[in-house]
Amino acid sequence: MSRKRRKERVFDVEARIDWMEIYRTLPIGGVRQAFPDTASCQRRLADVRWPSGVTCPSCGDRNIGLIESRSLYQCRQCRTQFSVTAGTTMHRSRLDLRTWFIAASDVITAYAKGLEEENLTGHGLAHRYEISYVAAHRLKTALVKDLRQPGNLLRACICTEELPVSREPNLAPEDWYAVLWAAK
User: Fold this and answer.
1) Which of 12, 7, 17, 1 is nearest to 165 (CA)?
2) Exposed, middle or buried: residue 108 (CB in 10 Å: 0-12, 13-18, 19+)?
3) Got the DSSP string for 125-169?
4) What's 122's DSSP letter?
C-alpha cells in the first residue's frame, strides 16, 4: 500500500470515528422499534428538549397548556402557541417526526459503516421515504449538518444508549474504530 493511500485510509477512519460512536449509542432494537409512532417521537423530543418541563420559547414561562387537537403548546402568560419542533431543524417540515428520527438513524448508520455513497443517494432516499428528490436532498443535507454537531437535539433524541466501550488514551484511530466496530 502506498504512503499516500495509507494517509487517505487513516483520514477516512478518523472521519468515521465520530459517526461510529454515534451509531453505537442508537437504541438496541433500532429507532423504528424504540419509537413506533409519531406520539412517542414527540414525547421523546419534548423530554430531551425540556427536561425540567415545557418552557415558552418567547417569554421563558413554564405555565404552559396543551392544545391536544392541534398538538400545540400555548403559554398562559404571553399566549404564544408553539410545537415541540419550534425553533429546530424539523420545524415547519411536512415530514412526519418519526420520518426524521428514522432518516437520522439511517444517515448515522450509513456514515458509520462507510456506505453513504450507496445508501444515501437522493433518489434512494426519495424512494425509501416516499418524498420528492428535492425534499430527500434537503433532508440528507440538514441531517448530516446537524448530526455532526455535538449536543444536537435530534442526535440526543435518538441516541438513547451509552457508548458500550471507553477509549484508551494511546489507542490509534484505526484500532479505536476496530474496537467500536466489534463492540456489542
Assistant:
1) 17
2) buried
3) HHHHHT--HHHHHHHHHHHHHHHTSTT-HHHHHH--SPPSS---T
4) H
DSSP string, 4-60: HHHHHHHHHHHHHHHHHHHHTTS-TT-HHHHS-SHHHHHHHHHHHH-TTS---TTT-
Tell me the C-alpha distance between 104 and 26, whole Å.
10
Considering only CA atoms, give the Rg of the chain. 19
Q: Are 115 and 41 in contact (CB under 8 A)?
A: no
Per residue in 9-33, pLDDT tens? 444 677 788 888 888 899 989 999 9
CA gap 105, 10 in Å, rounded:
25
CA distance 41 to 32: 10
Enter the pTM of the model. 0.85
| Predicted pLDDT at 15 | 72
Q: Are strands 72-75 and 81-82 parallel, antiparallel or unpaired?
A: antiparallel
C-beta separation of 173 from 17 below 8 A:
yes
Instruction: List Cα–Cα distances, 138 to 122, 135, 143, in angstroms.
Output: 9, 5, 8
| Residue pLDDT, tens place only, 148-170 | 888 899 999 999 988 888 888 88
Q: Where are the domains of the chain?
A: 26-50+89-161
